[in-house]
Amino acid sequence: MNILFMGGHELGAKTLEHLINNNVNVVGVVVSKNDNDWYRGVDEVANKFNLNLYEEKNINDQNFLNKIKSLNLDLIVCVNFDQILKKDIINLPTIGCINTHASLLPKYRGRAPLNWAMINGEEYSGVTVHFIDEGIDTGDIILQEKIKIDEDYYISDLLNKVKNIYPKIVLNAIRALESNNLNLIKPDLSKGFYVNKRSKDDGKIDFSKPSKDIMNFIKAISKPYPGAFLYHNNKKIIIWRARLDYNISPQYESLDIGTVVFNNSNLFIKLKDAMLIVTNYEFE
Fold this sequence. Notes:
Layout (H helix, E strand, L loop, with lengths): L2 E5 L1 H13 L4 E7 L9 H7 L4 E4 L5 H8 L5 E5 L7 H4 L5 E6 L7 E2 L2 H7 L4 E8 L9 E8 L6 H25 L14 E2 L15 H10 L7 E5 L2 E11 L4 H4 L6 E4 L2 E5 L4 E9 L1
Parallel strand pairs: 1-2, 1-4, 2-3, 4-5, 6-9
Antiparallel strand pairs: 5-7, 7-8, 10-11, 11-14, 12-13, 13-14
């Protein structure tokens, strides 16, 4: 099976290396040609194994399609790739194109699915390998693995789980396609939804929300993301680690919601029904 790999960042790099180490026939590797270091890493793996490397601004461009036609592709595999495949390239491989998405599709189609799942207090997230069609994360599901989001998880913990799953589930999907041992699931899109890309400015804390929602929000966008923040005395404070204390000390009961109190090395913030004890923060 001739496979073209498209990907970026650590997830893409780890998955590509795992495929090569398991004798998957990767005949070429595509990375986006841009200045965003977030998507680097895959090119280094391609160079390490002397694979054909394509750096492309637009993989739907006819010039690129002409380049890869001679590869006689059976499958295109996308892992953390930042371009949308259109009809002509989707139809190029004999088997099709597959993508790996960090959610239990059809829920959380689109961008930043892990962050949104934690923000919304989901008990589970997961990883899905699916065929690519002309929609966004709407193709038939090949494999899916569920991840429990433990109560004490921060986004970095969930990312570590996902990093371990991606290489294995992609390899398993390829093996299933090779052997034609498939049990495809057509997603019921009425039971799912899209989520949007998040930006740094989306991290401002809304103190009118319930305490648990605020805690979920902090955990969902902590490192390696930009972090939840508030302003105090015209200074921006980014919160990295915190916990809730529902036994509010009498000295804090009369404080307005959102009031900030510095106590030794910790930061105390009055919420609706709890104190937010911030144990790791920084000024920006």
